[in-house]
């Protein structure tokens, strides 16, 4: 199964991706996580994308396509994968279709901006395992500590009000056209991002089947 998750920042893509991986045993590909790893390691690529990411803009299509092209060749992708944060432009979606034929389903988690902005600034991330929490809606069991690996949680550099607003604007301008792109292919499954984590998971599972 080849799945794509789209949605504005903090719509709940990462959280739903975790549920999907567990159930369907898919490889998880988050381009944002991959780039943050490069930034953390201080690689040439990391240095190149650091300020772009912090500002809430997108890195170039060519760069991100090259990364995904390599990643989907890995062994763990043979049984299928879930893409979180890619594609983010129609150019990327077209390239993905060229690379893999076509996706099976694109899940679009739809949420209003005012809710997302509140979630963005309350979000906490584990720098070690990538798990995400939210001080308001999905708190960790012990405040500030990752439930999965016990690491101290941090706030992402782009989870501030300013960068959050910029990322939402970027989503509307550059990524929202993907909704029409996948709808035209008959691949889009739209789900209401306000109906609660468990209900969203149930709706997605019902759509994808056993
Ligand atoms: P995310 O964790 O998915 O919110 O991604 C964090 C940041 O990484 C984005 O705001 C972009 O700067 C960059 N990024 C991640 N995925 C992509 C992509 N598919 N195309 C362009 N930039 C991306």
- Order of strands across the widest beta sheet? 2-3-1-4-7
Rg estimate, integer Å: 16 Å
Instruction: Give the N-terminus to C-terminus distance in angstroms.
Output: 12 Å
**CATH C-level category:** Alpha Beta
* Poorly predicted runs: none
| Average pLDDT, all residues | 94
DSSP, total strands: 7
Task: Please estimate the helix content.
Answer: 40-55%
Number of domains: 1
Shape: globular
Description:
Strands 2-3-1-4-7 form a five-stranded parallel sheet, sandwiched between helices. Strands 5-6 form a two-stranded antiparallel ribbon. It is built from nine helices and seven strands; from the N terminus they run E-H-E-H-H-H-E-H-E-H-E-E-H-H-E-H. It has a single domain, classed as 3-Layer(aba) Sandwich (Rossmann fold). A hairpin with a 6-residue loop joins strand 5 (123-125) and strand 6 (132-134). The longest helix is centred in the last third of the chain and has 15 residues, at 161-175. 49% of the residues lie in helices and 14% in strands. Helix 1 (13-24) packs across helix 9 (197-208), helix 2 packs across helix 3 (44-55) and helix 4 runs parallel beside helix 5 (90-100). With 210 residues, it is α/β, with parallel strands linked by helices. Residues 9, 31-32, 35, 52-53, 56-59, 64, 85-86, 88, 92, 158, 167 line the site of adenosine monophosphate (AMP).
């Amino acid at each position: 199964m080849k799945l794509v998750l789209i949605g504005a920042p903090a719509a709940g893509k990462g959280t739903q991706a975790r549920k999907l991986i567990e159930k369907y045993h898919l490889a998880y590909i988050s381009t944002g996580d991959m780039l943050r790893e490069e930034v953390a390691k201080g690689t040439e690529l990391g240095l190149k994308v650091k300020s772009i990411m912090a500002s809430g803009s997108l890195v170039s299509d060519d760069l991100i396509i090259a990364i995904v092209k390599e990643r989907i060749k890995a062994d763990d992708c043979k049984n299928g994968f879930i893409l979180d944060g890619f594609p983010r432009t129609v150019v990327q979606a077209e390239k993905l279709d060229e690379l893999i034929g076509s996706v099976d389903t694109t899940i679009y988690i739809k949420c209003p901006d005012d809710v997302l902005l509140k979630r963005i600034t309350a979000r906490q991330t584990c720098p070690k395992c990538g798990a995400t929490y939210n001080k308001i809606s999905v708190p960790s069991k012990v405040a500030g500590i990752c439930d999965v690996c016990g690491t101290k949680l941090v706030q992402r550099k782009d989870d501030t009000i300013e960068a959050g607003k910029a990322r939402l604007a970027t989503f509307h301008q550059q990524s929202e056209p993907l909704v029409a792109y996948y709808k035209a292919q008959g691949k889009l499954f739209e789900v209401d991002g306000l109906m609660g984590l468990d209900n969203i998971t149930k709706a997605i599972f019902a759509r994808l089947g056993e």
